[in-house]
Design brief:
By secondary structure, this protein is mainly alpha-helical. The chain is about 50% helix and about 5% strand.
């Protein structure tokens, strides 16, 4: 867990309490978010704030789009101050401004949908991954084959997978308990027989450790970080011959979640389930707050998965419109 820095007054104690509160709910408040909160703290102090309050002028100035900045960075700044403001309000501070997200913009991003052949190449290269230099902290060649298969076969968020403890697994039954996911709601995930065998094999060869240890961890027991997993995944993509996107960025680990949603719904439709039954089941399995989030995952594939769009048209003609909404995780 990334160490909480020594924040400056006047928000010192409240920022520490806020981070600990979010972590207790299962949120991945690691280096990236903590650094953003530290930047926000400095900004508020520079605005002349000397007690625990967030004036409207400071709030709006913090979220203002900066020169040559992407809207995604602006959105991240909004999320930092919005979350902190809500926390302060819940603690009965009265001079705290907050607003709905008017930073949120329409998002035309399309996830990368891996083909079956590409998935096979990814697993092949992950199973044979050998870094040039001996890893000091993490055995990436041992961790990544299991992590990638878990993301692919369950649609789990990368943050959820990395926060798993060994005690969260019932390998015999093939059940994973997510006690505090992104939307504050726990859920159980039943894995496929093949994924169950992968986990059983992984645990049999696990170095001696307690059941409260992280499932994916380093030599010293520390949690496997998302940054390390992402960098290793990029190397595996290079070895698998999967090119970067026109934007210059690699396909994401999070795209496995989109792929899972698509193929799970396609499988259910293929087995004769109607969407009245399929969508709510998939929504609960993915840990979404509402079916609208699940719809977002599906709407991006209209040109490729004709079976789904035909089924959705029969269910409700406007179920998957060409919505311009922000991406969900």
């Amino acid at each position: 867990m990334y160490q909480i820095p020594d924040f400056e007054e006047p928000f010192k104690e409240e920022l520490v309490s806020f981070i600990n509160h979010k972590r207790s709910l299962g949120y991945d408040y690691g280096k990236s978010m903590v650094s953003r909160l530290k930047e926000m703290n400095r900004f508020l102090i520079e605005q002349g704030i000397t007690d625990v309050r967030i004036p409207k002028s400071a709030f709006l100035s913090w979220i203002q789009l900066r020169n040559k900045e992407s809207t995604s960075n602006q959105e991240k700044r909004y999320c930092a101050i919005h979350g902190f403001a809500r926390f302060l309000i819940s603690r009965k501070y009265t001079d705290v401004y907050d607003s709905e997200n008017h930073v949120l913009s329409k998002n035309d991003f399309t996830p990368y949908i891996y083909t079956e052949e590409e998935i096979s190449r990814i697993f092949y290269c992950a199973d044979r991954y050998s870094p040039e230099n001996k890893p000091i902290i993490y055995d990436n060649g041992r961790l990544m084959p299991v992590l990638l298969r878990l993301l692919y076969s369950t649609g789990m968020r990368i943050s959820e997978a990395l926060s798993l403890h060994i005690s969260d697994l019932d390998a015999g039954k093939g059940v994973i308990s997510l006690l505090a996911g992104k939307n504050h709601a726990g859920r159980n995930i039943v894995v496929s027989p093949s994924m169950k065998r992968v986990l059983e094999c992984y645990l049999r060869t696990e170095r001696p450790c307690g059941i409260n240890e992280y499932l994916f961890h380093g030599y010293d027991g520390r949690i496997y970080t998302s940054d390390t997993a992402r960098r290793t995944f990029h190397r595996i993509l290079d070895e698998a011959g999967i090119l970067r996107r026109p934007s210059g960025k690699y396909p994401r680990l999070h795209d496995f979640r989109h792929l899972f949603a698509i193929r799970a719904l396609e499988q259910m439709v293929g087995n004769g389930y109607d969407l009245y039954t399929s969508l709510p089941i998939l929504c609960k399995y993915l840990g979404h707050k509402s079916i609208l989030e699940t719809e977002y995952y599906i709407r991006l594939t209209q040109s490729r998965y004709k079976q789904l769009t035909q089924a959705s048209s029969e269910y409700a003609p406007a179920l998957f419109p060409d919505m311009g909404v922000s991406s969900y995780e």
